[in-house]
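Reopening this ticket.

The earlier resolution said the output was attached, but the attachment link was broken on my side. Pasting everything inline this time so it's all in one place.
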Amino acid sequence: MAIATNTRTTYGAIGIREDLSDIIYNISPMDTPFVSSVGKGSADNTLFEWQTDELAAAAANQQLEGDNNMAALAVGEPRRLQNYCQISYKAVQTSGTAEAVNFAGRRNSQAYQLAKRAKEIKRDMEKMMLSEDLAAAGDATEARKSAAVMSWLGTAAAGTSNIIDGSASPVVGIVNQGSPTAGFPNGTSKASPSGSDAVLTMAMINLAMQRAYTNGGEPKEILCDAGLKQKISALGGSVIADIQKDAPGDTPATAVNAVDVLVTDFGTLHIVPSRLCLPNQLYFFDYDFWSIDYLRPFQTESLAKTGDSVKQLMIAEYGLRAKNGLANAAVIGIKDA
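Inline output:
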């Protein structure tokens, strides 16, 4: 095969217009299941506080007829909890020339970059909220930190914890992680596995749900990383549903090998994988008992113009409120691979 002499081809030709799509394809995941599911509140100070309380244990309340010796009960004060607002921001600076030229896929380079940064901060929030960060008041050299989820699932008044240590033998709830008032769960302490990571079992899940139920919680969702999502599916065995295609128009044959809803003795759980969840642990969430409180909601601030450029800041200031952490649970110290 040969090309005739003097045949004009595109190779080396001058003036061919480029073909550049006006769509920018971004594969980065944007799902933030925790941040998207919890409530949204407001804070009036960098340190914000709230109170929790609980009823006395149910008892045989059987009294004498005509009793005239009614002693007043001891008053149980509510618990006063607190957390800090932390600051997250990202700055964007674009030259005047970059603002003037015509970019493919975006009309305004600065606006496009700011939109990207807002999405990145939201992912940062998800990662931090699901981390093991402890509260920090901050100072001139250290940023304030909002205590993350793991700091609020602590010891109940009865001494049993909603955090199940899968690495322990036998599997137990972690207890006595500090004073319920001054320490755990109060954003200043967290639980750690006592041994080597173990294989996830239904017994661990049931124990976590039992503890949350006993304390009055009703978790509706398990949040975990991709590896543990597969482990949960394996707990249900290989669930195969084949629908044979006998005639034209029938539903195509389908094989299902996943567990997305788990029914336990203490409630039904939706299993949600999270790319930003810590490995080796499962969170059992009742989202009604969480909120992210904003001292400053997401906003764009224009910074001082010092030359031929535009500089802006995407910023938010917020903290995590655990309205009552004992309505939730966790299993830690388990293998995710």
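Reporter confirms the inline version is readable. The chain has five helices and 13 strands. The first strand starts at residue 39 and ends at 42.
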